[in-house]
Amino acid sequence: MLLITLHHFSLWAQGTRSDRLILQGKVGDAFKSLIYLPLGDIGVYIFVMITGFYLGGKVISNKKSIKKVLMIYAQLYFYNLLFLIVGLHYHLPLNNFPKLSDPLNPFNRIPNVMMSIFPIAFNHYWFVTAFVLLMLLTPYINQVLIKIDKKSMELLLAILIISNGLFPLLNNNVASETVGLGIVVTSYVVGAFIRRFIPKNPKMFLIGTLLLFTNTALIYLVAYYDIIVLKNRYIKIYTGLFALLAAAGLFLIFINFKPNYNFYINNIARHIFAVYLITENIFIINPLWKYFTFDQVTNLYLLNVYGFLSVVVIMIGACTLDILRSNIFRICHFQFKSVTNILEYK
């Protein structure tokens, strides 16, 4: 989540600065201002690999899958309605993204409102939409992953990685875009494959290190070329195959560490998904990140230090808010059970 939010700092808080620097011919400075941009999808893929690592080898019932989806949806809907109320109260723009408006579709005339009320149908957050669909599919995906042998799973992975990781980089989105359900399913299967077939040993640690640094370096080299030479900050190669391989490398490094349980880390982890839900809310994106543009800072190295610290503060604030939300849910659940028990007793 740290990598994802750092990516959003570069994308949303520094995007305008980088565009301005490119127009001024200061392309080197533009690259420095977007230094965290390639990290986002590495973080996304790791997030899903963790899910595949722990769930991919289990029998998941439809009931359990739907329960998981409802838990995600309840958290999602809480923030959607909260920020919709905030947005309407403070007269925030109802259409931050005009290109989403379709004159032939009246439901898209006010996408901020419709996306807040129907977040999955209108794809408010691409990752949440893809993750919810993944959770609904896990009972069926896992039936395959549990029974399949190593050779067949390697072939399955090859098909998924090529169609969902490589093809989108070639503008072939028939299986998935560079951000979509296909690449999320691929990451899930990678996590499950690592759990079943990859041993924990120094060799795998070295392979993971090689995958991480080689692919991250390649992504940054292409980003450098796109910004410096092509003068374009919308870099596609940081998504898809190379980010997937970098994420797999980082994952291999960490699974070779000695397992350790920490109550505080686990407790924070329960609320970390809220960082994404809050910072990427359609009403919050612009008002939030405009406070972290740091336009007065001209030293770009210092800018990125400020950006890193700001992201840490944002994550702490979002987790704190979600702890409050969790307590509200707990109180409401307790009250509902109490009323239900009283009615059943009568």
Largest sheet: none
The amount of helix comes to 55-70%
Distance between the termini: 48 Å
Q: What letter string, H or E per element, gives the SSE order?
A: HHHHHHHHHHHHHHH
**Which class do the helix and strand fractions yield?**
mainly alpha
CA gyration radius, whole angstroms = 21 Å
Low-confidence stretches: none
Strand content: under 5%
Description:
With 346 residues, the chain is mainly α. It has one domain (2-345). The protein is 70% helix and 0% strand. It contains 15 helices and no strands. The radius of gyration is 21 Å and the shape is globular. The mean pLDDT is 89.
Fold blueprint:
Layout: H1 2-13, H2 15-23, H3 27-33, H4 40-55, H5 62-89, H6 111-117, H7 126-147, H8 150-166, H9 181-197, H10 202-228, H11 241-255, H12 263-269, H13 273-279, H14 285-289, H15 300-345
Task: Give a quick rundown of the structure.
The chain has 346 residues and is mainly alpha-helical. Helix content is 70%, strand content 0%. Helix 4 (40-55) crosses helix 9 and helix 5 runs antiparallel to helix 6.
Structure keywords:
346 residues, mainly alpha, 15 helices, 70% helix, 0% strand, globular
